[in-house]
Design brief:
Layout (H helix, E strand, L loop, with lengths): L3 H11 L4 H8 L3 H8 L7 H11 L3 H4 L14 H11 L3 H18 L16
Length: 124
């Protein structure tokens, strides 16, 4: 993708948003988004960082400093809290939590509502 503006437009379109919708999310005017997308103006740092978060892309990608738009998986705030809490648990408590998550997941399943399946995240 050739310019900062084209990357902003691509990120916005990938979310299915109009220029006005993006503008509303980052608290700027629609014409500001239009000026960014046509490379008339480069976004200032606070707007760029907010926009990257809203579009779920890497700010460095928007600025053409990185070719990978999403080098990390998006984690919403609830997932982040759970992940941080999990990281602070002992291995014994992690195993207990995995078992309990397996139980909860089985309760949502229609095929085996009472079976507690262990829940494991694959290691990299």
């Amino acid at each position: 993708m050739g310019t900062v503006g084209k990357r902003i437009a691509a990120g916005r379109k990938a979310r299915g948003w109009s220029q006005q919708q993006l503008a509303d999310k980052i608290k700027v005017g629609r014409s500001t988004v239009a000026n960014w997308e046509t490379d008339k103006v480069i976004p200032e740092a606070p707007s760029l960082l907010t926009m990257a978060d809203e579009l779920n892309v890497n700010a460095k990608w928007l600025l053409m400093l990185d070719e990978n738009p999403t080098p990390y998986a998006y984690i919403d705030p609830d997932e982040s809290l759970l992940l941080n809490a999990f990281r602070n648990l002992s291995e014994e408590r992690r195993e207990a939590l995995r078992a309990y998550m397996g139980y909860l997941a089985s309760q949502d399943s229609t095929d085996t509502p009472t079976a507690a399946k262990p829940f494991r995240v694959k290691s990299k």
